[in-house]
Amino acid sequence: MNRESEQYRFARVEGYQTTLAHLEEQFRDRAVDLGEMEAAVAEHLGKEWLCTPWRKSESERAGCREGMRLAGLQFLSQYRGVLLNPFEEAVFSRDW
User: Fold this and answer.
1) For the segment 26-36, what is each residue's pLDDT rounded down to a tens digit?
2) What element of type H or E holds 65?
3) Total structural domains in the chain?
4) Which pLDDT tens digit goes with each residue over 57-84?
5) Rounded to whole angstroms, how far apart are CA atoms 27 and 36?
6) What is the pTM (predicted TM-score) of this model?
7) CB atoms within 10 A of CB 15
8) What is the number of alpha carbons within 13 Å of residue 4 lying toward its C-beta?
9) What is the model's pLDDT at position 91?
10) Cβ-proximal residues to 66 (8 Å cutoff; 6+ apart), any chain
């Protein structure tokens, strides 16, 4: 794997993990509606500079942006499922 694609991949993972941790912390232990979550994700994605400021190359910045978007989409889809059908989500998430 060449160095540029490796750095892109690392930046993508960092962007994903950073964004997901931020969103989970922001909404931990409180009831919110889906609109509020969508607004928070959009706001966070608008703050790209928060992602990984030590990443300087354009390919690293692109990887970070992609990781941020993936985390936002996963976060919303996960909680959208819980909000729309909480019983089904609770049943399938148990460790039997």
Assistant:
1) 888 777 777 88
2) helix 58-84
3) 1
4) 888 888 888 998 999 889 888 877 776 7
5) 10
6) 0.74
7) 27
8) 4
9) 45
10) 12, 15
Task: Kindly state the average pLDDT of the residues 47-51.
Answer: 67
pLDDT of residue 1: 62
Structure tokens, 13: 């993972």
Q: Cβ distance 70 to 16 under 8 Å?
A: yes
Length of the chain equals 96
**Token output for 26:** 């922001």
Say how far apart CA 52 and CA 49 lie, in whole Å. Answer: 7
Structural domain including 8 reads: 3-92
CB contact burial 57-84 (16+ within 10 A = b; e otherwise): eeebbebbbebbbbbbeebbeebeeeee
Q: Any idea what DSSP says for residue 94?
A: S
